[in-house]
């Protein structure tokens, strides 16, 4: 996913999220129109996705400390590379999660006057927001791992 040394960009995750929202909306609308229930969403899943975002962000902090010259121990280049890959995967996964649950919320939108549907739509919206948090954490961790222009690591 690295193009021109930029890595995963905000534009790419936006296209992934919007594209997946559109595809999922069509599929979920068809599924719902056939008389089937939508896949469930839960508050616990939203909390889990936010915790994953915190973990991705925390994984980028040691790399940032090393690149700024504040690390007490040397950084293994393989660990730094794995952190970048984790950050990029988190950004793209967050975009997919956002698109999937945004599509569920959009399918439920016409029936918000029913309490159970409103509750399901709120849970789907919370998971879509949690996916956005995961995307932001992945993009931020990727940015923390970016080498300076001179490509000379400190120390």
Describe this structure in words.
The chain has helices at residues 10-33, 43-67, 77-108, 115-144. With 155 residues, it is mostly helical.
Supply the number of helical segments: 4
Content-based structural category: mainly alpha
Using only C-alpha atoms, the radius of gyration works out to 19 Å
Low-confidence stretches: none
The proportion of strand residues reads under 5%
Would you spell out the secondary-structure blueprint of this structure?
Layout: H1 10-33, H2 43-67, H3 77-108, H4 115-144
Helix pairs in contact: 1-3, 2-3, 2-4, 3-4
Outline of the structure:
This protein has 155 residues and is mainly α. Helix content is 72%, strand content 0%.
From the structure above, extract its key features.
155 residues, 4 helices
């Amino acid at each position: 996913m690295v193009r021109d040394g930029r890595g995963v960009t905000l534009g790419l995750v936006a296209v992934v999220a919007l594209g997946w929202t559109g595809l999922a909306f069509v599929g979920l609308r068809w599924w719902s129109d056939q008389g089937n229930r939508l896949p469930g969403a839960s508050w616990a899943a939203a909390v889990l996705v936010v915790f994953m975002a915190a973990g991705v962000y925390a994984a980028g902090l040691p790399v940032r400390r090393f690149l700024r010259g504040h690390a007490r121990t040397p950084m293994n280049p393989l660990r730094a590379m794995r952190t970048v890959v984790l950050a990029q995967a988190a950004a793209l996964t967050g975009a997919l999660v956002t698109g999937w649950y945004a599509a569920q919320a959009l399918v439920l939108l016409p029936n918000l006057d029913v309490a159970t549907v409103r509750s399901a739509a709120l849970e789907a919206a919370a998971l879509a927001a949690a996916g956005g948090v995961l995307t932001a954490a992945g993009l931020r961790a990727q940015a923390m791992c970016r080498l300076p222009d001179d490509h000379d690591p400190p120390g």
